[in-house]
Amino acid sequence: MYKPAITAGAIFAALAVILGAFGAHALKEVLQPDQLQTFETAVKYQFYHSFALVATGIIFSSFPFRQIRLASTFFIIGVLLFSGSLYALTLLKMNGQVGLGGVGIITPIGGLFFIAGWLMLLWGVGRKK
Which residues contact 46 (CB under 8 A, 6 or more apart)? Predict the structure, then answer.
């Protein structure tokens, strides 16, 4: 078991539930439909990768390799960059900020970290013990 991955996954999942409920109830009244969809995408990807983190933490018991730990690190960075930037974009748009100051470029970088995490996980479980 790799406790940091499981802990991060549980924290991110709890936050995703909170943010999802906040979006469905409080933000539904103040956001435009496209803004709400962006927010929901952030929550969705945060949820997916929360589960990936918990799974990675469990998988580490059978495949205790550096690649598995790296996968969890990449998933954490991906959530922070991908979902975090989408939350920031939603907040900025909601407050009428036109110039987003490059925040939008962070989202695909977060997506690359997600991809790297999945590839590291694949590499790690593909190694012989």
Answer: 12, 15, 16, 19, 79, 83
